[in-house]
Amino acid sequence: MNSKIQQSKVAGTSGADIAKYVLAAALVVAGLVVWWWFAGQWATPLRALVVVVGLVAGAAVFIATAKGRDTVEFLAESRFELRKVVWPTRQESLRMTWVVMVVVLILSLILAGFDFGIQWMVEKLFTMGR
Q1: Residue 9: phi, psi to the nearest 5?
Q2: Burial of 24 (0-12, 13-18, 19+ CB in 10 A)
Q3: How do residues 14-41 score in pLDDT, each as one tens digit?
Q4: How far apart, in whole angstroms, are the C-alpha atoms of residue 46 and residue 42?
Q5: Is this model's pTM higher than 0.70 or not?
């Protein structure tokens, strides 16, 4: 386990963080508004660049908040933990794929048998006495 993991932080959201959230959302929305507002006037690559700039600026402002720092820390720890994963070899993956396919085939045949059996019983029940 990563030694940087700390106890859960129980803290309220500060007014500065709320202002940063609003600013980050406004930057993203501004980029999207430019995309639609200047649809026939600006070249598409320029409008796309403005959208990307809005997204990047919004993300940068979000990272400056407490939740943003927690998100960056979480992503860093996730990447650290991902390096510890032992990935299966190609042969192991193929073998497990075949096992799953065989089990699915067997279970589907069992369920089809139940379905046909119940259908046959219901038909016999409704046609009895005719």
Answers
A1: -90, 120
A2: buried
A3: 889 999 999 999 999 999 999 999 988 9
A4: 7
A5: no
